[in-house]
Amino acid sequence: MAVRLLVYSTLLFFAMMLFLIIKEPYTINIVDQNGNLVPDIELFNAQNYQIKEGTIESIVHADRVARYKDFDKLYVINAGHKTKEGLHGTLISDEGTLQDNVMHFQTNSHYAREDGVALDGEDIFYDLKKEILSSEKPFDFTQKQSRSHGLSFVYQMKEGTISATNIHSFIQQLGKK
């Protein structure tokens, strides 16, 4: 009787070990009831400062940040930076993601600099390491009295230079009728 109980217990133990080896690891709350990802951490009124050479180079403010395993999702973004000439620029967007040092501004994005340069578009990417703003979607670029429309662009934030494809520009001459 004792040997039979030992054999059954051993078989039950091995069956449980086999089950645990085959079974996927247990995870808590990866998705909610609707199938949406659940963030690991949520922040409200978050600010991120980028400090280089003893000065604050840029500040990113978001009303809400949801941090997931591989990316961050930001809502109502206001990102300010300083160019090498000392001009201040601000990029505002309703929604964006940060993944692998690339910020993706997804909807209603607007960049403006204090000297009158402005850029409006959707699906704008900002490479944090290279400091390049780019998009493969239509955009509007305004500078003083000129306005340009194009299909895609690459904007060097520090140098203030833009290269674009398939552009149409309108230049308004001030003072002439």
From TrEMBL:
Transmembrane region(s): 6-22
Keyword annotations from UniProtKB, A to Z: Membrane, Transmembrane, Transmembrane helix
Keyword Transcription regulation appears in the UniProt entry: no
Pfam family, one: LptC
GO CC annotation terms, alphabetical: plasma membrane
InterPro entries attached to this UniProt entry: LipoPS_assembly_LptC-rel (IPR010664), LptC (IPR026265)
Signal peptide extent: none
Molecular function terms from GO: lipopolysaccharide transmembrane transporter activity
Protein name: LPS export ABC transporter periplasmic protein LptC
Taxonomic lineage from the root: Bacteria, Pseudomonadati, Campylobacterota, Epsilonproteobacteria, Campylobacterales
